[in-house]
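User: Predict the complex.
Assistant: Input components as received:
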Amino acid sequence: AEEVGGEDKEVVREYFNNSGFQRWKKIYGETDDVNRVQRDIRLGHSKTVESTLLMLKDEGSLQGVTVCDAGCGTGSLSIPLAKEGAIVLASDISAAMVAEAEKQAQEQLLASKNDQSPAPVMPMFQVKDLESLDGKYDTVVCLDVLIHYPQSKADGMIAHLASLAENRLILSFAPKTVYYDLLKRVGELFPGPSKATRAYLHSEADVERALRKVGWKIRKRGLTTTQFYFAKLVEAVPM
Ligand code: SAM
């Protein structure tokens, strides 16, 4: 398989250390300085995070469970996971994102330490692209990252993430459906100023095939749609 890297990855890293960092920090935050579209994406994304937490907790308590949050962004998932008692590795290709996630974790987790028992374990933060992650985790999660890569690269990323996971792998991606494909094409005809990176859609069948190739099967599926945010969520387990 072709190695993930080259142009796409460098463009993505650069974007998420600069204008993409500013844009997404705002969307994933709580401030009021967002436009209507950004507010809608904020809502959609928070639903994906919520569904992921529900999927994870469905199988039992997260206390002491090791979770790798690959492409952690500002920590939207890593921080609530730590609050649930998970031992989290939060990593991202963008140093700016990791610094922000760490700052927010310190604010939110140290503050809640006093009234939570047992006290949450601070996630471990790492600036690393997911392709160079190593180690073994009970669970690996990768939310809204595949959208930055074409399926040819996503295959290798999925295989690598699966190799790090002992029991489950949760992925979210923008689904390639006829309707959304059309929306995206219209968007490309009229690109807004903040659309600095390409967005790639993935079909569920392609993601399923990539998982199957490395011996994993999908156990649960979810879908979040708002006006401007679309994400399929899949939970995979070893076959
Ligand atoms: N997963 C987070 C969430 O759902 O809140 C952030 C999603 S954000 C749209 C995409 C994130 O993926 C960015 O923080 C970006 O820096 C990171 N990213 C992109 N390509 C990556 C790669 N190859 N390895 C690790 N992180 C990557």
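The pocket of S-adenosylmethionine is lined by residues 9, 12, 16, 24, 28, 70-73, 76-77, 92-94, 97, 129-130, 143-145, 148 (CB under 6 Å).
Let me know if you want any component modeled separately.
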